[in-house]
Specification:
By secondary structure, the protein is α+β, with helices and mostly antiparallel strands. The chain is built from 5 helices and 8 strands. The chain is 33% helix and 25% strand. It starts with a helix and ends in a 10-residue tail after the last strand. The chain binds heme C.
Length: 176
């Protein structure tokens, strides 16, 4: 009987762990790429024509959401895709580097950074991982053996401003 209980306990722990792991997944939108394609014609490369602190004009998050939702380039975006784009727009408003994790291919994680001039570092605990930049707005990191994406932190720095993205919390920065 005792054994049965401990097996049940173990099973519950495994289910809990797998739920935790499966919630760590890439963002549903390549926000930086989509922005360049659908928004930059009016708002400039990397949002440079949007200006700074425009968030303050909006009393609440839902008002900012309404504006972004009403943009020509946002037609047909699913709610989670829109969330990712709104996060990017917040980073632009604050003048902070934006980070998003967009893909996993085996042990390779890929994502985006804006502005492209920002430097990108990655670490697991205190160990630094090598970061490749296939293009200025993209980063690529290889997971060390046995390490899950949730253990990875990505850090972008532009001038003195730094953004840290912990993949266990969210696949993109500026969630609020
Ligand atoms: C055809 C031109 C055009 C395109 C394309 C466009 N916008 Fe806009 N956008 C505007 C105009 C004009 C305004 C100002 C009018 C308004 O507030 O409704 C605006 C306002 C905004 C604002 C508010 C800025 C502020 O200062 O309050 C944000 C944020 C924004 N757009 C994001 C986006 C995003 C994200 C996309 C792509 C998905 C996009 N826009 C595509 C023309 C455009």
């Amino acid at each position: 009987m005792r054994k049965a209980i401990s097996v049940a306990g173990l099973l519950a722990a495994c289910v809990g762990a797998s739920v935790g792991v499966s919630s760590v997944r890439p963002a549903p939108l390549k926000a930086v790429e989509v922005y360049e394609r659908k928004c930059s014609s009016c708002h400039g490369k990397e949002g440079e024509l949007l200006g700074r602190n425009f968030e303050k004009k909006y009393a609440s998050d839902s008002e900012l959401r309404e504006v972004v939702e009403s943009m020509p380039g946002a037609i047909g975006m699913r709610p989670q895709e829109l969330d990712t784009m709104i996060a990017y727009v917040r980073a632009i408003s604050r003048g902070e580097p934006f980070l998003v994790w967009t893909e996993r291919k085996g042990d390779i994680l890929e994502g985006e950074v804006s502005p492209g001039r920002a430097t990108v570092r990655a670490q697991v605990g205190r160990t630094s991982l090598k970061v490749e930049r296939p293009t200025p707005n993209r980063w690529r990191v290889e997971l060390p053996k046995g390490i899950q994406p949730g253990a990875v932190e990505i850090i972008a720095q532009s001038g003195k401003v730094r953004t840290t993205l912990r993949l266990k919390d969210s696949p993109y920065s500026h969630t609020r």
